[in-house]
Amino acid sequence: MVIQPPDSVVSVLKTTTDRQGQNFAFVVGEGDQNSFVADVNDIERTLDLLPN
């Protein structure tokens, strides 16, 4: 699970987790290059979508 700032979202970790047979998820926060926040409810909902 990756929490990313809105101005530099990248998916390079998706390729790595796919190669290792791992699940991948991310939440994009709100803010700018100096500071960002991610809503805990968004994080929890995203984690709930991942298989156990």
Short account of what is shown:
Helices cover about 35% and strands about 20% of the residues. The chain is α+β, with helices and mostly antiparallel strands. It is flat, with a radius of gyration of 12 Å.
The count of β-strands is 4
Category from helices, strands and their pairing: alpha+beta
The main sheet comes to: 2 strands, parallel
Number of helices: 2
Gyration radius, rounded: 12 Å
Could you give the order of the helices and strands?
EHEEEH
Shape: flat
The proportion of residues in beta strands is 15-25%
Low-confidence sequence ranges: none
How many angstroms does the end-to-end distance come to?
13 Å
- Helical content stands at 25-40%
The neighbouring-strand order within the major sheet is 1-2
Overall mean pLDDT stands at 93
